[in-house]
Amino acid sequence: MDVKDIIREENLVYKKSRLLTDTPFNFCPGCGHGTVVRLIAEVIEEMGIEHDTVGISPVGCSVFLYDFYDFDVVEAAHGRATAVATGIKRVMPDKFVFTYQGDGDLAAIGTGETIHACNRGENFVIVFINNGIYGMTGGQMAPTTLEGMKTATCPRGRDVKTMGYPLNITPLLAQLDGTYYVTRQAVHTPAAVRKTKRALRQAFENQKNKKGMSIVEVVSNCNSGWGLPPLQANRWMEENMFAKYQLGDMKVDGVLQMR
Amino acid sequence: MKGNEAIAEAAIRAGADAFFGYPITPQTEVMEYLMETDATARTGMVVLQAESEVSAINMVYGAASCGRRVMTSSSSPGISLMCEAISYLAGAELPCLIVNVSRGGPGLGTIQPSQADYFQTVKGGGHGDYKLLTLAPSSVQEMADFVALSFDLAFKYRNPVMILSDGAIGQMMEKVYLPEERPRLTEFPDWATTGTRPGQHGRTITSLNLLSSVHEVHNQRLQAKYRQMEQEEIRYEELYCDDAEYVVVAFGISARIAQNTVERLRAAGKKVGLFRPITLYPFPAPQLAALAKRVKGFLSVELSAGQMIEDVKLAVGSQVPVEFFGRLGGMVPTPEEIEGALRKYFSL
Ligand SMILES: Cc1ncc(C[n+]2csc(CCOP(=O)(O)OP(=O)(O)O)c2C)c(N)n1
Ligand code: SF4
What we know:
The structure holds two protein chains of two kinds. By secondary structure, chain A is α/β, with parallel strands linked by helices. Chain A has a single domain (3-256), classed as Rossmann fold. Helices cover 38% and strands 19% of the residues of chain A. An eight-stranded mixed beta sheet of chain A has the order 2-1-3-4-8-7-9-10, with helices on both faces. In chain A, a hairpin with a 5-residue loop joins strand 5 (133-134) and strand 6 (140-141). Chain B is α/β, with parallel strands linked by helices. The longest helix of chain B is centred in the middle third of the chain and has 21 residues, at 212-232. Chain B folds into two domains: 3-171, Thiamin diphosphate (ThDP)-binding fold, Pyr/PP domains (Rossmann fold, 3-Layer(aba) Sandwich); 236-346, 3-Layer(aba) Sandwich (Rossmann fold), CATH 3.40.50.920. In chain B, helix 1 (3-13) crosses helix 2 (29-36). Chain B has helices at 3-13, 29-36, 39-43, 53-65, 76-91, 118-122, 140-157, 167-171, 212-232, 252-267, 285-292, 308-316, 335-346; strands at residues 18-21, 46-49, 70-74, 96-102, 133-135, 160-166, 204-205, 236-239, 246-249, 272-277, 279-281, 297-302, 322-326. The A-B interface holds A 21, 50-54, 56, 63, 66, 69-77, 80, 83-92, 95, 112-113, 116 and B 17-18, 20, 46, 48, 50-52, 54-56, 58-66, 68, 70, 84-85, 88, 92, 193-198, 201-208. Bound molecules: thiamine diphosphate and iron/sulfur cluster. Residues 27-28, 31, 33, 61, 131, 135, 222-225 of chain A line the site of iron/sulfur cluster.
């Protein structure tokens, strides 16, 4: 049996979305970013809205989103994605707009923009990658860095007495009247990937129905920043990140979900 | 009407698609007027109060990416906050209008008029090699006239344009002939990220190039654009310069006051003139250099410690003396003070 015998229609288990270009992802092997980027393309393709979609890639490991997607993408300054998205959505209310932000972007430098865009109930989708660290700049402390976790700027572990506590921002955003759907997912197992895809679809459907802000947080890994091989990183994430950042829906159809 | 109101009314009439702003004295009337006269009901334009100037200018960036006529207005401290995004706008080549009704600094400073943001406006402000095409109105009429012009220049060059005004012109009440109303855009440039057409590949708005060799080419293209502005967009006004021996160089409110001085001295038989740069970038350097061949000296009059004078000196070189008179921190000179400076330096 050679390669030609394998590449057959009946053997197809996965097909790259046509909304992904041929540019190879620049993410580290095993990083969750690539999975989420792919899922968004799939959801947009399945909804048939690629000609009505504008994505926003702020500074972070996802800044090159525009090289990977074959639809319109606007790069934003670090932290300003939701302000840029507001500007786009306000002048084109019938288009689909989403931001794709890291924890540094959404919960540190861009906290103000995040809270106020949510509070205004802007009708777009925020995809929030929480990996507890600054990936792009080489593994510094993020607002979401866990207590005791080591990073390049807290090499002896995050000391909450001087460095503050890990910021669990999504439940805060769920409290705001302007948010309609807030959920926290992961992409470390096939089942989790499917759930995340359903959540993304829900978020885009909400936008279609003009329901206001939908936020899909994905708790993800950063093998490079955490200094762990992919499998170990995922295990570490399950044991530590999920304990602090519990997966599940926080707000559905505008209704807070009791825990 | 007030200068600030003229800006707002002119924006509606210029077919602006969106205004994003944050209150700060002495320019708050711009957004207040847009809300009060219900600009949204009149033309459908978006008017939104942001949570900060940082957010406002990034909303501008977003709407500008969609090829819309979009603007913001603020005053000095607010403009300082916007500078990162202004650099992004220039880098990503997005058209927009930014109005600075400037006040005295540094820091919180004063709400009184100032021209001390000249350097910030024409020499950078934000990071990187970029230029803002800058118009400096000296009357309420020009506040109104420069809005549509700014939008058109912004689109011509795919570059942000600034109207650098000051608290005096912003608050001053004068009669204005309002410009004709024109419709908002219904078609958008090909580069605008408005959603692709079937068969079209995704477009990108970005200022990022990791490859230095590519980024140098991008920068060279921006520079070529700036050289073109220097060829085509210089605007200025000369008063009594034909036979003048001494010329005051002043823009905005300073030019208004200096005009008074010049007219008084003319009445007294003194050969003085006024040169008023209307574009601060591109600066009318060739015109000043030509004038320098005919006059005996220049006096730069500014509401600052002397900023534009550097450009005057660059233009004039060592042909004739260039002197300075300015007031600081929100103080405005009287025509007599300017006359005193002329008499002192040039023994009129
Ligand atoms: C104003 C500004 N400050 C700092 C930076 C440097 N910077 C780039 S990305 C980044 C943090 C990225 O972390 P995150 O948002 O969590 O995304 P990740 O890279 O982890 O996906 C920082 C600090 C910048 N580009 N701009
Ligand atoms: S640095 Fe971290 S977040 Fe960035 S691509 Fe690599 S693993 Fe992913």
